[in-house]
Design a protein that fits this description.
about 400 residues, cell membrane
Length: about 400
């Protein structure tokens, strides 16, 4: 490890310690009343529980070869046509984000995308960008697609379908983002590649069980089941199938990759943000968006997108949620914090995970160019998503 990398790790650890210390001081001094602290913890506990369970589920899906098999069959099905291959890969990234969350796409699919690009002689950057852009922008559809969605579900009126609200803006956002990706890829002038029949896959029953577990989690959560419980049941069922077939992964290896530190940091950060929001609550109440006018919705979506790029989308969602007093403004907020974080790395955890994955696989990311492209796409996609909400309202 280089000296620069060690310094980076040390800075991250110091920042984490300071963040946790700040949260402890806030709770201990009563800067955030105990009732408010309990409310924050009650909201975030099932969300972070789902994150931990889903990370394990995605790891098990990767262990059985589900993602690698999907990539191999996509490359074969495209029949040597680079544009078809890229379009099909975008579809894989979208579906993975819908059912296994944006972080899974950023971490699990990015190495596969890099491998496909190198294997077929294509430029790596468009494939890598497809992973991170679609991880963020395709995370609007289902509650399980993004942690912000799970928080938003708690704020919706009883009986309100999340999918009924999110489908239209999700389609609008994807039209913009996928269109931009296809234009970017078309400029690379990729050449036809040699079609290779996929190598014999692993155990098909195990991969089928993994696919059912992933899709079942998303469907169950969308139907109203607690997301963490749906994920846990799916994980246990998949593990049982693999155990019967003698293919259960090493539980310690899976446990080591569960992002416990990230969950602690997220909890501490939310307490800090909640304390700031509590102190500013009189002002926030006056700024609440109650109407469904295009200007009001776009203002909320644009402000949340800009703030997410400056800070991070999860605390920005928590801070802005009191401004969204009805379902349509709440959805505009989600468009901002989900589809907007395409400019700066720290705007979402998925961005940071993606960048780290690219670096570990020898891919240099031109951050300035990616940021400029991301800014253009973010503005257009937030506009499109907000327009869809306004038309629906």
């Amino acid at each position: 490890m280089t000296t620069r990398a060690r310094r980076g790790q040390l800075a991250v650890r110091i920042g984490l310690v300071l963040l946790v210390a700040a949260a402890i001081v806030i709770v201990a001094t009563g800067a955030l009343p105990l009732a408010e602290t309990d409310s924050v913890l009650a909201r975030i506990a099932p969300v972070l529980g789902f994150l931990l369970v889903l990370t394990a589920l995605a790891d098990v899906c990767d262990e059985v070869g589900l993602f690698a098999a999907a990539a191999a069959y996509v490359a074969y099905a495209a029949r040597g046509r680079p544009r078809m291959l890229f379009a099909m890969w975008c579809a894989v990234a979208i579906v993975t984000t819908w059912f296994l969350s944006l972080d899974t796409t950023a971490v699990m699919l990015t190495p596969v995308a890099i491998g496909i690009a190198r294997q077929t002689g294509a430029r790596v950057l468009p494939f890598a960008l497809a992973c991170v852009w679609l991880a963020n922008s395709a995370s609007l559809l289902l509650p399980v697609s993004n942690l912000t969605n799970l928080l938003a579900v708690q704020a919706l009126p009883a009986g309100q379908s999340f999918l009924a609200l999110s489908a239209a803006p999700q389609i609008a956002v994807l039209v913009v983002v996928v269109g931009a990706l296809l234009v970017l890829h078309s400029r690379t002038r990729a050449q036809p590649y040699e079609v290779q029949r996929p190598a014999p896959a692993g155990d098909r029953l195990s991969m089928a069980a993994a696919a059912v577990a992933a899709v079942g989690t998303g469907v169950a959560a969308s139907a109203g089941a607690p997301a963490w419980l749906a994920g846990l049941v799916a994980l246990c069922a998949l593990w049982a199938v693999l155990a019967v077939r003698g293919q259960a992964p090493d539980p310690l290896a899976i446990a080591k990759r569960i992002p416990v530190v990230m969950a602690i940091a997220t909890t501490a950060l939310l307490i800090v943000v909640a304390a700031a929001a509590y102190a500013l609550s009189p002002l926030i109440d006056q700024l609440a968006v109650e109407g469904n006018g295009f200007g009001e919705l776009l203002g909320l979506a644009g402000a949340s997108a800009a703030s997410a790029n400056l800070l991070n989308n999860i605390p920005v969602y928590v801070a802005f949620e009191p401004l969204a007093s009805t379902p349509h403004p709440l959805l505009a907020l989600l468009v901002g914090v989900n589809a907007g974080p395409l400019v700066l790395l720290w705007a979402s955890l998925a961005n940071l995970l993606w960048w780290r994955t690219c670096r570990s696989h020898g891919v240099t990311v031109p951050l300035v160019r990616v940021g400029v492209l991301g800014a253009v796409v973010a503005v257009l996609s937030v506009l499109a998503g907000t327009a869809a909400i306004w038309a629906m309202a």
